[in-house]
Amino acid sequence: MDFQLSDDHRMLQDSLRGILTRHTGEALWPALVEAGVPAALLTEAEGGFDGSGAAVALIFEEMGRAGVALPLIPTMIAAAAFAQAGQPADEGASHAFADAEPGARYDRGVAISADGDCLTGRKTMVAGAEDAAAFLVTTADAMWRVEAGAAGLALRPYPMLDGQRGADLTLEGTPALRLGSLTDFAVPLARGVLAHSAYALGCITASVELTLDYLRTRKQFGQPLIAFQALAHRAADLAVEVEQARSAVVNLASHLDDEAPLRDRHLQACKVTVGRVARLVAEEAVQLHGGIGMTEEYALAGHVRRLLAADTAMGDADWHLDRFARGEPAWS
Amino acid sequence: MDMRFSPDELAFRDQVRAFLQDELDPGLARKVRLHQHLTKAEMEGWHEKLNARGWLAGNWPLEFGGAGWSAIQRHIFEEESARAHAPRVVPFGIAMLGPVLQKFGSPDQQDHWLPRILNGDDWWCQGYSEPGAGSDLAGLRCRAERQGDHYVVNGQKTWTTLGQHANMIFCLVRTSTEGKKQEGISFLLIDMTTPGVTVRPIVLLDGTAEVNEVFFDDVKVPVENLVGEENQGWTYAKYLLTHERTNIAGVGFATAALDNLRRIAGAQIHRGRPLAEDPLFASEIAAVEIELMAMSTTNLRMLSAAAQGQAPGIESSMLKIKGTQIRQRLDALTRRAYGGWAMALPVPGNEDPEDADEVLSATATWLNNRKLSIYGGSNEIQRGIIAGALAKG
Fold it and tell me: Which domain holds residue A27?
């Protein structure tokens, strides 16, 4: 048993940390592509060079810690799905994953349907839609590829909760390529859930560190806040829950390549644990800070929004808990 | 990153499973599963079987007659034992006193007491808490005065688990009232058959008396029963507490309790269907199971870090809080699973409702396991320890 990073992964972590401190904004994506980060998220068969659970987890934890808002997760899911379906790789391109539907919570195929090789309907909260070379689109039970600029495809872009830009998609008889059934793509989807969870773990860690720094330095009634038992015990509980969230991410990362029932249980458990802890940390970090924790100029602000967003991505804690309790697979 | 056990560890696990299969009596396992209190003979019998296999003291090094297991091996043994509903090894001699004598005892004390622990010649109990010294243990007042080649002990200990079976007690006693309160404490081994020792049972919520009060009235203790140096007992006590907290997560106990809960929820009927199929109840079970899946890995991560030589910090406090929360949640769900049947009163006697020993055990376990978040440093004490470390950054 060994929970340490391998030498390769440690080097990857170091180089990623360097990039995330040196580059921001427009310059970040090319720097990540140049450093091979998107390729590290894919297996050799998918045109990358790693794609292991450990690599996905460490990359997105760093991204979450740094608070980077990039469509790297949908790009990874789509690239893996396209590769699996035998589509040629499109290096350096970003892709979008059109999954959520308006008014349907986490159900699929409510607002969209297929007719032969054409899709008609709506998708919402599609991260990175404006820059996407292609869209990975879900319907009730299938996965599709839609090219950017395809006939009948319209975008209505807007900013989203996690700092990314997203869009509503309207499809009217839009030509699409059916890649397979949803369950055929369980592995790319599981890697997506792992990425969202690890990203949330990074936000969780950063938020708790900010909160602890504040409790140590902010004085009231002549004492640092951490000296007050009511606050100290809540901080201790947060520290315990951070370990639970980390363990849940480790569990999914370690079972990514296992047979479906075991992988799905860890996937659901991971999403439930991380989603629950993310919401808890968002609430507690603000409360333990007090008023300053509600201000836009303080560093916590973006993390709080990203923590809420993370639970919502690809099915929230309630949705996955329900399926876990019923013994249902992760996707169907 | 690799979460799998090594081939050697898997082989060890198979040995443990085979041992439990061969040696554990099903009737005894059923009593353990139902959390029924075991007799002294039953506990001693299990110790004897383990000792014959060389497995009684997994935590002791080979030179003292222990099994010399790694932290991972101890974890495997504890998990497998709990899942098979084997009796737990009574911790007072093996897990608590043994390591203290090995670290701080004289060669004479080691030669005399350690084999007696393994052979079951002595039954040890722990004299730490007092009526006025619970969480604030260093405030203890039970006094030992040196008179020639004896100490004379006067005072009271409480919450002495299984003290009714014991012939020996290791005690923290006050030998000085000068300086800081931690600096006047000594670690003394007391023969409970000495005149002046009185043991009185404390009946708990579940109707049983597994804990006791122990009174000392001019009890003469030979000076050679002092462990280490006079007034250094607090150091030894803290060392002992770190050992008390191994297996603090109780993953095996929680897994066994979850299996039990699933079985019960599968048998009890709710709206004409098994309770396990009720979405509300099923999601409560699922939520605890998911917590347990994460904690199990938290436990392994911390064991693995310890095995690689990282100094233990606040990990045991974290595991104690989460582990006891999970077990108490499982106890609560198990009791609720019985519905109205759980009105049965768990008291010893022959007036039980028909077929009710399972449901009686559910309530008795709920009542008894309130102790989990209180003993070994209450969960609030653990939060204080964690926050103390967080405050330093």
Answer: 7-66
